[in-house]
Amino acid sequence: MKESLDFIYKEQKELSTFSRIAALLGWDQMTYMPKMGALERSEQSALISKLAHEKVISDEFWNHIQILSNNKDNLSEKDKAVIVRLEKDVEKSRKIPSDFVEKMSKTTTLAYQAWEEARGKNSFKIFSPHLEKIVELEKEYCGYINLPGPQYNTLLDDYEEGMTVDILKKEFSYLKTNLVEMLEKIKSSHIYKTQKKIDIKINQENQKKLCQIVFEKMFLTNDKARIDISTHPFTTSMGSDDVRITTNYGRENPLFSFFSTVHEAGHALYELEMPRNEFKDTVISDSPSLGLHESQSRFWENMVARSISFWKHFYPIFQEVSGFRELDLDKWCKLVNQVKPSLIRVEADELTYCLHVILRFELEVDLMDDKLQISELPEIWNEKMDEMLGVVPQKDVEGVLQDMHWSGGSIGYFPTYAIGTIYSSQIYKKISEINTNMQSEIEQGKFENVLNWLRENIHKYGRILSADEIIKKACGEGLNSKVFVNYLKDKYYNLYDI
User: Fold this and answer.
1) Do 351 and 183 meet the contact criterion of CB atoms below 8 Å apart?
2) Which residues contact 317 (CB under 8 A, 6 or more apart)?
3) Furthest-apart CA pair in the chain: how many Å?
4) Sign of the C-alpha dihedral, residues 149, 473, 440, 254?
5) What is the distance between the alpha carbons of residues 430 and 265, in angstroms, rounded to a whole number?
């Protein structure tokens, strides 16, 4: 068995290296790559994807996995954990032809460039032919994997293992009904009717300073992480000690860069705390789901950085750097938590954010079920925005073109944002129960105990456990939208005097 163990760890190390090369190519494309480099970059990315996939599905790799799987009782706990996870991953990958992987990689690389051009020209028609190809490829992919139930179950499982359309329809139906009801109550309140949009001006240089300060307060150092600029903020990892996040300083709302930095920093903290030592460069050293990953970013962004406790500490720093002194602390906290239906998901307030996600979930399910055509997307998108949020995009860039996810073939990804948001409220509830001094510590800018709890109860497991198992172990129950709804009611009914 030693030969098989040596082989599977060597292969995982090489696969980890391939993954990091692909991440570096993707990061460069979305930050610094000249636009004319898209065609060759698509070929580079496709080659890396193909080489990695062929290594994963090789008979030699599979045979060694089978030898070890058949002798699990003789393996150490560490080796057993790796084999159980690896066998499941490889079995799934072996169903997918290498030429399909290459084709998907090339298609999405070109689609991303088309999406950027479409945004620049505010024309969905430029992007729609690329999206047509991606949806067809996704349907082809579903045919290879063929999980029970709707095709969308297969796509969803890649991001949130074990999750199904039926489970999400139940959770999201409850969430949608309550969010719309809460929004209507808030919109009927005197405070909402008299609230004003505060015109805040912070130049980009000062935005960068504020982002760097909060970046460092969240224990991220420049020797392991960095902040860059992209159209759409994201986090990616090129190594166990090399995590990159991006933000955007050019948005109309200058607070966008600050909160997106906190959000992405939450992802980065998780990436830097993945299991190392014996699990480094194995399938275990990763998050079990994007929903769990998103719970980390949403927790830091909303439960920490939008709290009055946080601003008691940070507002003087913010004022000193930005020069903004027009509001006292109480009014400032109401401003950063102001409910105002937005056209743009990443700029949405905490209460309405999940409605944006549910909208995309409903569209994706209908696309995969052939109940919706690509050409109909802009119109149906706008109808759903009006129905759920009472605002309607006037141009494609405010609506169907706002997210990059579809250009990357990430259909099935969006629900993880709502799943993660729900998880974050459950995590917040549990930490609050265990650490009654949490708000006092945050007021002093002390986040060590919060981070240590996350490390001990979320980060350290990697993929040894599923996301559902981790949340149940940490919070005492699995996904529960009611916890999130109660959290929102406690917070926003108080802010709007309801």
Assistant:
1) yes
2) 210, 213
3) 72
4) negative
5) 22
Say what the pTM is.
0.94
Considering only CA atoms, give the Rg of the chain.
23
H or E element that contains 173: helix 165-187
Can you give the residue ranges of every domain in the chain? 2-146, 165-495
The order of strands in the sheet holding 235-239 is 225-229, 242-247, 235-239
Structure-token pair, residue 87: 């066998």
Structure tokens at 143: 């045919």
What is the rounded distance in angstroms from the CA atom of residue 177 to the CA atom of residue 159? 25
Residue 182 has which token pair?
A: 């809460």
Burial of residue 426, with CB atoms counted within 10 A of its CB: 0-12 exposed, 13-18 middle, 19 or more buried: buried
Would you please indicate which residues are annotated as catalytic (active-site) residues? Answer: 264
Q: Three-state SS for 229?
A: strand
Q: Which CATH class is domain 165-495?
A: mainly alpha
Q: Which tokens belong to 131?
A: 């999206």
d(CA 267, CA 296): 6
What is the distance between the alpha carbons of residues 346 and 353, in angstroms, rounded to a whole number?
8
d(CA 61, CA 342): 49
Residue-by-residue pLDDT tens, the chain, 498 positions: 899 999 999 999 999 999 999 999 999 999 999 989 999 999 999 999 999 999 999 999 999 999 999 999 999 999 999 999 999 999 999 999 999 999 999 999 999 999 999 999 999 999 999 999 999 999 999 999 999 999 999 999 999 999 999 999 999 999 999 999 999 999 999 999 999 887 899 999 999 999 999 999 999 999 999 999 998 899 999 999 999 999 999 988 899 999 999 999 999 999 999 998 899 999 999 999 999 999 999 999 999 999 999 999 999 999 999 999 999 999 999 999 999 999 999 889 999 999 999 999 999 999 999 999 999 999 999 999 999 999 999 999 999 999 999 999 999 999 999 999 999 999 999 999 999 999 999 999 999 999 999 999 999 999 999 999 999 999 999 999 999 999 999 999 999 999
Q: Which one, of 421, 296, 409, lies nearest residue 358 by Cα?
A: 421
In 3-state terms the chain splits into helix, strand, coil percentages (rounded to 5) of 70, 5, 25
Structure tokens at 296: 């980390």
